[in-house]
C-alpha cells in the first residue's frame, strides 16, 4: 500500500513546496486512517498518535525510509506550520551542504523531516512528544486562526 501511495504522490505535480508538503501531509492522514486505523487531525494532540505510528512504521521489514520520512515528516511539519502560521522553505540544514524542507516560524527554522528520520532510525530517544513540547515552549502560544 505504501509503495502505491509513493507512486501516486511522486507522479503528482505540485505548484510549489508548500502545496507538496500539504499534499503529502493529507496523504499521511489518509494512510494513517486506512492502513493503521489511526486518526491524524492536524491537532497538537495528534503528535502522540504520530509518534505511536512511527514505532509501527519503523518495525516494518520493508521500510522505505526515504518515503516514510517525507510522508510523516510532512505531516509533522504541517501541524507546526498551521499551529504557528509558518511557511515551508528549502534551506540548508545547519552544518549540512544540502537544502531540505523546513518550516520557518517567527525567524526560527524547524526541520520536521529530519526529526522523523531520527525517530525512525534512533528510536525512543528522539520521540516526537518531547520535540513538540520543546517547540511549544520555545515558540509559545499558537497563532490565532480566524
What does this protein look like?
The chain is mainly alpha-helical and 146 residues long. It has a single domain, classed as Four Helix Bundle (Hemerythrin (Met), subunit A), CATH 1.20.120. It has 6 helices and 3 strands. The chain has a 3-stranded antiparallel beta sheet with strand order 1-2-3. Strand 1 (87-92) and strand 2 form a beta hairpin. Helix 2 packs across helix 4, helix 3 packs antiparallel against helix 4 and helix 4 (65-84) packs across helix 5. The longest helix has 20 residues, at 17-36. It is globular and about 40 Å long. The mean pLDDT is 92.
CATH topology: Four Helix Bundle (Hemerythrin (Met), subunit A)
Query: What fraction of the residues are assigned to beta strands by DSSP?
Result: 5-15%
Biggest sheet record: 3 strands, antiparallel
Please name the CATH architecture: Up-down Bundle
Instruction: Quote the average pLDDT.
Output: 92
Sequence of secondary-structure elements: HHHHEEEHH
* Structural class by sheet pairing and helices: mainly alpha
State the CATH class: Mainly Alpha
Tell how many strands the DSSP assignment holds: 3
